[in-house]
């Protein structure tokens, strides 16, 4: 399977509920690993002195030390995504080279976009290659939405529509399966049934009739099994 970039993350927020919501988003993301969780900047300053992280989700208004104070005090500065309930700090936040500035409560789309920026920054800094086709734009509910391919689990046919199931949610797009398949890189996605296209990186197990992607079980057409075996072998040897 394709090796994924994993960013080590920390959360600094004095709100227990807000920390829990960010923890949940991080745990659901395949490219993030939570290594630190702090309820204030003082605690974070001590913890980060001995813990290397790549990305910090940082509140700004906290007792004693603000998020800005914390960044001023730490020597090894990770990438920063500010998370706050107010917009008044947005301009100052970008003086700190912030990846993004998220308003509470955090919307999943905004979270995904911010994390994707951080992953790309990390890859560029570490000279890791990444695909120009790392995402596609689709139209759902009259809005354009960016869908990251490494988060797309499978696509299901629904009459004149297709349903895209990602690591976080699902959305419905007006399209045929054939038209949508043409948008996807053929070395990463395979049509396994008249009603399903699967992300090969997400396949965990399969037999002659079904494919398992974590908690999802999808049907496998009998005449597609050989294609699946060949495609999985190609991804492992890539």
Automatic annotation (TrEMBL):
Domain of life, per lineage: Bacteria
GO molecular function term, any single one: DNA binding
Name the UniProt record assigns to this protein: Response regulator transcription factor
UniProt modified residues of type 4-aspartylphosphate: 59
Keyword field: Phosphoprotein
Domain Response regulatory, chain residue ranges per copy: 8-119
Pfam families: LytTR, Response_reg
Residues of the HTH LytTR-type domain: 154-234
Cross-referenced InterPro entries: CheY-like_superfamily, LytR-like, LytTR_DNA-bd_dom, Sig_transdc_resp-reg_receiver
């Amino acid at each position: 399977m394709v090796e994924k970039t994993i960013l080590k993350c920390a959360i600094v927020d004095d709100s227990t509920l807000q920390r829990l919501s960010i923890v949940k988003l991080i745990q659901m993301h395949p490219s993030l690993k939570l290594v630190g969780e702090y309820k204030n900047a003082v605690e974070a300053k001590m913890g980060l002195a001995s813990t290397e992280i790549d990305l910090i989700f940082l509140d700004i208004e906290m007792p004693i030390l603000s998020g800005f104070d914390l960044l001023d005090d730490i020597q090894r500065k990770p990438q920063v995504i500010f998370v706050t309930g107010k917009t008044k700090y947005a301009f100052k936040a970008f003086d700190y080279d912030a990846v993004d500035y998220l308003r509470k409560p955090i919307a999943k789309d905004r979270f995904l976009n911010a994390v994707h920026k951080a992953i790309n920054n990390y890859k560029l800094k570490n000279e890791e290659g990444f695909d120009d086709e790392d995402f596609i734009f689709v139209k759902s509910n009259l809005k354009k939405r960016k869908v990251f391919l490494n988060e797309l689990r499978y696509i299901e046919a629904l009459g004149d529509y297709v349903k895209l199931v990602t690591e976080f949610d699902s959305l419905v797009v007006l399209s045929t399966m054939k038209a949508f398949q043409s948008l996807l890189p053929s070395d990463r996605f395979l049509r396994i049934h008249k009603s399903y296209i699967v992300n090969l990186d997400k396949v965990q197990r399969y037999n002659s009739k079904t494919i398992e992607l974590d908690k999802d079980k999808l049907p496998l057409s009998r005449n597609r099994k050989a294609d699946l075996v060949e495609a999985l072998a190609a991804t492992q040897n890539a």
